[in-house]
Amino acid sequence: MEDLTQDEWAEQLSNDDNAVVLDVRTDEEIADGIIPNAIHIDIYKGQEFINELEDLDKDKNYYVYCRSGNRSGQACRIMDELGFEHAFNLEGGILEWEGELVQMES
C-alpha cells in the first residue's frame, strides 16, 4: 500500500494502463458524484466488501479513495492482506479532489 498526494495519485493514474479506480464510500456519499470510471464497493458492508474485493483481478493497480482518506487507507490495508500488490490510497480523499466528478447512474 502506498499513500499518494492528490497530484501523485492523479498523475500516476493517468499514466497507468493497468489501473482500476475504487470508491469505498457509502451509497449516500456517492450521490455527490464519483471519479470517472470508478468501481464502487462500500467498505462498511463488512464481509460483503471482502467478498467483492476477492472477485477483483489482483494483477491490476488499484487507486482507492473515500471521503477523507481514512477508510481508503483501511481498504488498502485489507487489500494488502488479501494479496493485492498495488493499492494506492488517495490522501485527503474526495474532499480534496480537484479532478472531474461524474454522477452515478441509478
Reported for the largest beta sheet, the result is: 5 strands, parallel
Q: Tally the helices: what do you get? A: 4
Strand order of the largest sheet: 1-5-4-2-3
Which structural class best describes the helix and strand composition? Answer: alpha/beta
> In percent, how much strand structure appears in the residues?
15-25%
Distance between the termini: 31 Å
Mean pLDDT: 95
Low-confidence runs = none
Rg: 12 Å
Fraction in helix: 25-40%
SSE series: EHEHEHEHE
The gross shape turns out to be globular
DSSP E strands, number: 5
Characterise the protein shown here.
Helix content is 31%, strand content 18%. The protein is of the alpha/beta class. The protein is built from four helices and five strands; from the N terminus they run E-H-E-H-E-H-E-H-E. The N and C termini lie far apart (31 Å).
